[in-house]
Amino acid sequence: GAMRIDVITLFPDFIESCARIGVVGRARERGLLQIATWNPRDFASDNYRSADDRCYGGGPGMVMMVDPLRKALASVRAASGSEAKAEANAEAKVIYLSPQGTRLDQAKVAELARRDHLILLSGRYEGVDERFLEHAVDEELSIGDYVLSGGELAAAIVIDAVGRLQEGVLNDAASAEQDSFSNGLLDCPHYTRPEHDDWGDVPAVLTSGDHAAIRRWRLKQSLGRTWLRRPDLLDRVELDKKTRALLAE
Ligand code: SAM
To answer: Ligand 1 pocket: which of 147, 149, 153, 158 to mutate (most atoms <8 Å of CB)?
Structure first.
């Protein structure tokens, strides 16, 4: 069935509007991806709909409270029946987007994309009460070594990267395979019409019709770019037999 992603966030509108456009939006319309948002304020216990409070120990800033988050999570589980499932990949994984988490990369994205259900928590202010993280969160994920004011952008990044890998989402599955990182290398350069422009010509090999030559050119470009821009990636890349044969031609 379709993958399900629930997002617990103080700014559901942001997630909803991101999830309406482009590849992810189409995937939802076609029923290949299910996305729902949950606002902890809807689970507050006071009339002010409070979901955050001051920091124990003093200092500036607010912290997201345990109870509204716990109730929001319970509602997600009730709505999705996530407790009932037995298969490992079907069990919902609760992810807190956090600068202190494991850094997201394409391998991690591919791993998450194979799951049936993700529950994403976006923080705000100073973050989330540590007790919620200890008891309810399976994993913390960071989108990079910088600090955002909220986890919504980070959650939208996860939704986008994971969503486009769902089966049937991209018109051409090969397009995800040739993207940067999927084979450990950066992608090759791309060109479209016109063939000749004031700012240069399209490399002749691409209009030659020689498919083997085109594959070889693209691979060499990928390798060259990776070497120049991200030599760190080359340490980990294992070229398969077919690829090495192609280079030797
Ligand atoms: N005090 C926290 C710390 O230093 O670890 C940072 C809180 S930050 C201002 C507010 C929220 O933004 C966090 O709760 C988290 O959800 C989100 N956030 C900030 N930077 C992030 C990053 N690099 N990756 C993922 N989420 C991030």
So the answer is: 147
Tell me whether residue 186 is annotated as binding.
no
Distances 128 to 55, 125, 132, 137, 140 between C-alpha atoms, Å:
10, 8, 7, 11, 12
One-letter amino acid identity for 23? V
For the domain that residue 104 is a member of, what is the CATH number? 3.40.1280.10
- Identity of the residue numbered 161: A
User: What is the ipTM, given to two decimal places?
Assistant: 0.99
Distance CA 8, CA 122 (A): 6
Contact assessment for residue 28 and residue 176, using Cβ atoms and an 8 Å cutoff: no
| Site of tokens 């600068």 | 99
Instruction: Count up the domains in the chain and report the number.
Output: 2
Indicate whether 86 pLDDT > 60.
no
Task: Tell me, yes or no, whether 159 and 184 share the same domain.
Answer: no
User: Of residues 67, 139, 179, 187, which has the active-site annotation?
Assistant: 179
Question: How many Å apart are CA 50 and CA 21, to the nearest integer?
Answer: 31
- Residue 144, marked binder: yes
The pLDDT, as a whole number, for residue 158 is: 98
Segment 133-161, tens digit of pLDDT: 999 999 999 999 999 999 999 999 999 99
Residue with CA at minimum distance from ligand 1 atom 23? 99
Enter the pTM of the model: 0.94
Q: Flag whether 225 is in a domain.
A: yes
Yes or no: say if 98 and 141 are a contact pair by the CB < 8 Å rule. yes
